């Protein structure tokens, strides 16, 4: 995987994971738009059948209004999915959003303090959810990755990458091997100094 042009990362940062909100977000927007359009058309049919407005005017206004209430949720969901991207490298997590104006959020993995994921009842059934990333010193969630397929796997990838960036090993022991060798050498030096052994 290559780093997208919009990510302000160093070119040598390898991409660990890329994603975006799931495709079904658009399907839900289309379904919501259809329901709203049907409600508008049914309302116009009632207005026409009761003779409250002229038939031609009601039909034209009704169809135009039905198209508008369909297009807003369907188009909004499509634009949101199309303009939202997530990229995880070995050094940072990037979130891109925006259609006319671009916003890119960068979280250095070494600053990530906590990650979590959540799934509602439908998320549990259909395998989607939200991943939340907190950084040290922030109030609340620093970054929320919404409507992801497989949020548990994404959560684990972010947590592992953050741990590796901080020098934590996968076996749960904090610090790198070099750090622990330095600690051992210092303990031996202190022991020798206190006991008089050289």
UniProtKB/TrEMBL annotation:
Domain YdbS-like PH, residue spans: 82-154
Regions crossing the membrane: 25-48, 60-80
InterPro entries: YdbS-like_PH
Highest taxon, organism lineage: Archaea
Keyword entries, A-Z: Membrane, Transmembrane, Transmembrane helix
Signal peptide start-end: none
Annotated protein name in UniProt: PH domain-containing protein
